[in-house]
Amino acid sequence: MTALVLGLVLTGYAPQQAGSALLDPPREARVQALGKQLRCPMCQGLSIADSNSSAARAQMDKVRELVAGGKTDQEIREFFISRYGEWALLEPPASGMNLLVWVLPLLLLIGGGFAIFRTVSRRPPVTPPAPAAPETRASDDPYLEAVRAELRR
Questions:
Q1: Which residues pair with 39 in a beta bridge?
Q2: CA distance 140 to 45
Q3: Displacement of CA 100 from its chain's centroid (Å)
Q4: According to the model, what pLDDT value does residue 115 have?
Q5: Orientation of helix 54-68 relative to helix 73-84, angle to 10°
Q6: Distance between CA atoms of 63 and 125, rounded to whole angstroms?
Q7: Alpha helices in the chain (DSSP H)
Q8: pLDDT, tens digit, for every residue of 94-122?
Q9: Contact call for residues 86 and 94 (beta carbons, < 8 A)
Q10: Least confidently predicted of 9-18, 124-133, 141-150
């Protein structure tokens, strides 16, 4: 009996799952679009809209709360950037040091193509093999003639 009462009392204090009520369809679509732009802190390759982690659900709730509060998309992105840095964005803007991340692969690809082109163009042209020397007659080479004479004996 005590266990039953204790169980009923404790279940009232169980934490609720993260997840706020959905907004009307246009605002919920905006929440989902913003969620696709923000990186999940637990599973780094996914957005918070695609992740099932509790941290991502909490961040989606925060996005939903900010959208319901009338914040613009840019204000919501800035809210997350101010707390987590530009790392929070799945696609950081191409400026400052981030510009290097956007441009460096292209420069490496161009440089590699140029190096391959130079290597291929520097190769000497393939020349056909020189014609074989005409065979020498036995009478032209005294040493060969001596060896043949020796073999005949």
A1: 47
A2: 81
A3: 15
A4: 93
A5: 140
A6: 65
A7: 2-11, 25-37, 54-68, 73-84, 97-122, 142-152
A8: 677 777 877 889 999 999 999 999 888 88
A9: no
A10: 9-18
